[in-house]
Design a protein that fits this description.
The protein is 51% helix and 7% strand. The protein has 35 helices and 14 strands.
């Protein structure tokens, strides 16, 4: 990604900003796959291609809670509806028709771009920034891994970390992420900076961490990274932030409104500039006439617009430390604000505005950077502080001496086998950034892997390298047990589970659990906790989740389409939980096929491995469609074929529906867990019968 000098890099375009950015990434990528791969549509604007219009349509459908209001799209669809042939061609993605009939609509007032195609470009630009697609919106190899179209193979180092596939994929991409200057020559690696800083200082405040990470750029003049980290403070960063005052402002007279509005801009609201100018006028008049009357006018205006003015001129803090209604002596007020009133007021206010804008933008962009960094599973953000989740391992894997030169650099100075220029680094689906490289490849550790494993062994008390993954998982599980006991005791899980029945509770659920996740993802997370208590805490829930979790055990994204939500393995049983918040109508369309497929494939796989373990699926929802309940009961008597193991069949597939409230009740019956499980199988065993797989062929032979 390239940035201009003076600009702060942004990993998730604010035009498409949302809290659940990890879910958005996979969702947007799946839509792009439908548009580009399945329908083979070029990523071009109308009338050359309906791809961008269709993308926005799919986004509205996939994320209705996010895209609640879309007036531009509604207006566009309403206009198109007046031209049935055009509407039909867009719906069926008929490129040939659109190309041949485009001139017929050249003079029709149909604006595809504003509020529709431009938003599709904004949302998909986020995929480009992480290498899941290229600039032409071709899905990259790493994008195909995220879509489960290509398997992810962990290397020797990645297996040591207790991370899931999505965590590892984000970790790889973030380690490769570089912010380039406009020439594509100088670069800055923000995630590498973050890891290096946490190796050096172990623990940082969020403000300091993102001040360093988000506040740096390929244009930064940092001669000594160690000294920069050791001496860093937000106050120092803001004080040293370079601001060049324009000549039109650097004058000793009051600015006209026309000049003022050119430089004191608000990118979100032009009307706010009027508030800024009113404040400026009050200050300027007070500097000329320092009387109690002018001071009263200044403070009255400030008090009426405090929040707006603090954000614009005070870095979010009070511009003036006076209580509302208090009117200090003029000289005391001047002494308390000496920096302001001993300076040229035009220059001072512009500098304050520019630095405040820098800090506000930095914090805004840091918010989404934090959410993306969380997806690596490597960095913990807790109680306003930042740490590495696996500090012992990271200290061995990420050699500080090797990592430091990777923070800032120049493409001309690098000698690597994968790329020679900016274009080869991140332009196109075949570029290094878009290609599938493991942790060892990215860090160049292939030759030193054995040495690193020895260091890790020493750090873990002499444990054998092959035992380290189990030790890491066990430690994480112990940490998770403490986390659950403190954050999610039984009664709280029951209270949360009861909230999902009313979608008006969605905001509260996100606030109480994790604002970075969708509500369906949170539902899977809470269902797992409820089952953990129902089972009497007899299984490792952390390893059973197919959710993507942060280093702080927050749910970030739901399981991929190829696997069940929660799969619990024990010596004698495999239990799969499929959780959904789909309503009774949507369950038929969205759950019947995947739940049945996951259940059949799991049972066939167990039988092929001859484990003799009992396989049970529980379909957990807030409400049920009556046909769904009966279908699940009926399939137990029908032989079903695997979708992954060729012609392999299985029978007596057990899929038991359990509602959220029923699960709450089961949490109090952990002593009866084994009995309940057996009774479920007894219930389904009644209907098991010898099924003739040739029943249809025999019948057809008789009648044809």
């Amino acid at each position: 990604m390239k940035v201009s000098k003076g600009h702060i890099f942004n990993l998730f375009d604010t035009n498409g900003r949302r809290n659940d950015v990890i879910a958005a990434m996979r969702g947007y990528l799946s839509i792009l796959n439908t548009i580009r791969a399945n329908q083979d549509l070029p990523w071009r604007a109308m009338p050359n291609s309906p791809a961008q219009v269709l993308f926005y349509r799919h986004a509205i459908g996939m994320f209705p809670d996010v895209f609640k209001d879309h007036p531009k799209y509604d207006e566009l669809i309403s206009t198109i509806h007046e031209y049935p042939a055009l509407e039909a061609a867009i719906d069926r993605a008929d490129m040939e028709w659109l190309e041949s009939h485009g001139d017929e609509y050249a003079n029709v007032d149909i604006n595809f771009d504003e509020g529709v195609e431009d938003r599709a470009r904004h949302y998909t630009s986020n995929l480009v920034k992480l290498g899941f697609a290229d600039g032409r919106r071709n899905i990259s190899p790493v994008g195909n891994i995220l879509l489960d179209r290509i398997p992810l193979h962990e290397d020797g180092l990645e297996r040591l970390l207790s991370l899931n596939k999505e965590n590892i994929l984000y970790l790889r991409q973030l380690l490769k992420l570089r912010i380039f200057d406009k020439a594509g020559e100088r670069y800055y690696a923000p995630f590498v900076m973050g890891v290096y800083a946490l190796l050096r200082k172990s623990r940082l405040s969020e403000d300091d961490f993102f001040g360093m990470v988000q506040g740096s750029s390929p244009y930064s003049n940092i001669d000594d990274v160690d000294r920069y980290i050791d001496n860093f403070s937000v106050e120092g960063q803001l004080h040293n932030h370079a601001v060049s005052t324009p000549d039109e402002i650097n004058i000793d007279q009051q600015l006209t409104y026309d000049v003022f509005k050119q430089y004191f801009l608000n990118r979100k609201s032009a009307r706010t500039v009027n508030i800024y100018y009113g404040f400026y006028q009050c200050i300027f008049e007070f500097t000329v006439d320092r009387t109690p009357e002018k001071l009263d006018l200044l403070l009255t205006y400030y008090e009426s617009n405090r929040s707006v003015l603090n954000k614009a001129f005070g870095f979010g803090r009070n511009v003036f430390d006076t209580r509302t209604g208090d009117r200090p002596d003029v000289q005391d007020f001047l002494d308390e604000n000496e920096d302001m009133f001993s300076s040229d007021i035009n220059d001072y206010l512009y500098r304050q505005f520019a630095i405040s804008k820098f800090w506000d933008t930095l914090r805004e962009y840091s918010d989404t950077t934090k959410r993306i960094f969380k997806a690596s599973g490597l960095i913990s953000f807790e109680n306003g502080y930042v740490e590495l989740a696996y500090h012992e391992l990271c200290a061995c894997i990420f050699n500080a001496a090797d990592l430091k030169p990777k923070i800032f650099g120049s493409m001309d100075d690098e000698v690597v086998p994968y790329y020679e220029s900016y274009d080869e680094y991140e332009e196109g689906v075949s570029s290094y950034f878009c290609s599938n490289f493991s942790l060892c490849d990215i860090l160049g550790l292939q030759e030193s892997l054995d040495e690193i494993k020895e260091q890790i062994s020493e750090a873990f008390g002499g444990a054998a390298p092959e035992d380290i993954p189990d030790i890491t998982r066990r430690r994480r599980w112990e940490e998770f047990e403490v986390f659950v006991a403190n954050q999610y005791p039984v009664e709280r899980v029951k209270e949360l589970l009861a909230l999902f029945g009313d979608r008006n509770n969605d905001k509260r659920i996100k606030q109480e659990v994790c604002e970075d996740a969708t509500v369906p993802t949170i539902y899977e997370f809470i269902v797992g906790l409820a089952w953990y208590y129902f089972s009497g805490k007899r299984f490792n829930l952390l390893s059973s989740y197919n959710l993507t979790l942060s280093a702080d055990f927050e749910p970030l994204n739901h399981a991929g389409g190829g696997q069940g939500d929660i799969v619990i393995e024990s010596k004698h049983d495999v239990t799969m939980l499929e959780a959904t918040l789909m309503n009774v109508n949507s369950q038929k369309r969205g759950e019947w096929e995947p739940v049945l497929r996951h259940s059949v494939n799991l049972k066939v796989d167990e039988e092929a491995r001859k484990t003799d373990r009992r396989v049970t699926t529980f379909f957990i929802a807030d409400v049920f469609d009556a046909n769904t309940i009966n279908i699940w009961k009926a399939v137990a008597s029908v032989p079903l074929q695997s979708t992954t193991a060729g012609a392999a069949y299985t029978d007596n597939v057990v899929i038991m529906p359990i509602s959220s409230l029923e699960l709450c009740g089961l949490m109090d019956r952990s002593s009866q867990y084994d009995t309940v499980m057996q009774r479920v199988h007894d219930l389904f065993e009644v209907d098991k019968s010898n099924f003739d797989l040739q029943w249809r062929d025999k019948f057809i032979d008789e009648i044809v």
